[in-house]
Amino acid sequence: MMKTAPAPVPLSPAVFAVLLALGDGDKHGYAIMKQAHTPEGGNVKMGPGTLYGTLDRLIRDGMVEETGMTDDERRRYYRLKARGRTALAAELDRLNVAITSARASGLLAHGGRS
Amino acid sequence: MSRTAPHADEPNRLVSLYAMAVRLYPGPFREAYGTSLKQTFRDSLDDRTLSRRTLIPLVLRDLATSLVKEHLIMLRDTFGRPALIFNALVLAGLATVLALALNTIPQQVLRLGANDPQIALADDLTVKLQQGIAATDAITPASIDIARSLTPFVIAYDDQGHPLASQARLDGAIPAPPSGVFDYVRQHGQDRLSWQPVRGTEHGVRIAAVVERVMPVGSAPGGFVLAGRNMREVEAREHLVGQLATLAWLAMLGLIFVATAVFGWITRPRGLQSMVKAG
Known about the structure:
- The complex is a heterodimer of chains A (114) and B (279).
- Chain A is mainly alpha-helical.
- Chain A is 49% helix and 8% strand.
- Chain A has 4 helices and 3 strands; from the N terminus they run H-E-H-H-E-E-H.
- In chain A, helix 1 packs across helix 2 and helix 1 crosses helix 4.
- Chain A is elongated and about 50 Å long.
- Chain A starts with 12 loop residues before the first helix and ends in a 10-residue tail after the last helix.
- By secondary structure, chain B is α+β, with helices and mostly antiparallel strands.
- Among the domains of chain B are: 70 residues, no CATH class; 116 residues, Beta-Lactamase, CATH 3.30.450.20.
- Chain B has a 5-stranded antiparallel sheet, sandwiched between helices.
- In chain B, a hairpin with a 4-residue loop joins strand 2 and strand 3.
- In chain B, helix 1 runs antiparallel to helix 2 and helix 2 runs antiparallel to helix 3.
- Chain B is rod-shaped.
């Protein structure tokens, strides 16, 4: 029997893309933005204003923090906190369930991309 | 000899323009992220995989949406604090109660004061009728059009409520209050009421009326006296009081709104939470 996890609140595309970009390591603002633009990063076209607004809210919610490290005093690096990692995992699970279901219904080809 | 590319200064110009646009963000956001915003824009310009044709519209769209969003968030953080809203609502509630009192109390005083001449007239006529004076002799002849005149008037009725003598006319006839009024006065001795005599299908005239019971004494038959007065002027004053109370209410709400906005601005959160966390 499948264990049913409580349904996570869907994340906004920008929040999802930022968390996903930070999921594989610390990044500075432009690196997050660039990864978000890629299909693997969620294909979310966001500019600097949206990026830092989203980062601010994520920092406020305890999902992301600044690393304090920098390769340039104008570049700040960010990393996921445990709470952000949990939220990202929950969102990925939610999407995974939806994609599995779509494949089972024939709405999405096996191994294909929508 | 050195050659300068035709658009060599373009990145600097774009960065300068973007830096000017960054100044449009709310202060705390700009202080926290202004440098990062500009650096990220510079990084975008330096990225040769991202064409200007893609970047510039993206940044313009982003500026338009994120400026609005950050200002709305700043407004929410400044003025949407529960304590601030609660205080404003309590003050607005108090202002509403005060305005209702300013409306109701003077109107009641005006309405009650409108009965004073009628009380004296009704008492005097009742005494005369109970002394056995005939209604037609006790009442000074007059023909007061109660729809127009503000003069107080009296009417005497017999014990069944039929008019005996009257100074008042409404559309040429002697007006009579509903029979329920006489039943009430028969039991309680007196009634003070706002009376709207029927005029065809209209009820346009309002009368401040005092109705008293005339007790049968000796040969003097029982009956009723009604003293009344058109309420037009009193109602005009009541209307004025209502308007003044409404103006006072709106002024109080406006003052509360302005004071709340000023207080909210003075006590607004300084800087973003992320700045605190970043130390």
